[in-house]
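The records we work with from here on pair a chain with its fold. Taken together, the tokens spell out the fold as the letters spell out the chain. The record below shows the convention in full.
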Amino acid sequence: MKKITEILIGSLSLDTPDARKAALIDKINTVIKPPREAKADNVNIRAMYVVNDLVNSHGGQFRREDLTKLCELIVDTPVLVGHNRAEAPLARTFHAELEEKGNALWLKSYFYWPKSGEQDDLLLKVDSGILKECSISFIYTTPECSICGEDIRKCPHELGSAYDTPHFIYGGISQVLETSLVYKGSVKGTYITDKLSMKEDAGLINRLEVNTDLTDGKTAIIPISLSDDSLVKLKSEMDEIKLCRAINNGKHFILIQKKAASHA
């Protein structure tokens, strides 16, 4: 197995902040379809760096390719406080994308809520840093051991909480239930930002690394989360790899193929 790196650059990330906000508001109206049309003067938008591909404090880790799946599953889910489902949601997630920050690939989710006049309690708490960290609630089937791939509850390896110790991989992710504003997230470094584009917050490049079988002539198909009008630049760090983008039933994919070896 060899490692391929795809560099994905979406057009929304290249826009000015004003254009980015307008595009995000349009996403609210097209994805969530609220009865009252979302406009710049009636909604607030913020973004969460909510999970990444590092081992969290529970000893769990997301595969990088599963973060792409989470980008789709998290859309149109509620935002709560403290995972308290007995209370009404505060906001709603309407878009998500992946962003490389430091040594981790982060899922950055965008959420909105209605403006409520000059004294907006939620906005005040978020922007003052009182509500700062975040967490995700999701359904998966098996905690797969990072050493042997078996169910870590049954295998002989002792659970740790670091990349180089036995930990578990979230296997069979099927649903995102909600994201929450919490006092302490299980993922180190989660935070909420008012920077709505990568250009403002972290740079333009969004890297996705995947491990795939590069047998000559075999094509690996990697799902990605993009809008139909996104500008995508594909680049491989290996000369013998061919990359192209494909769309099927409105879903986007990268096709990765190893070039056949030439013989004299």
About this structure: The chain has a mean pLDDT of 80. The chain has five helices and 15 strands.
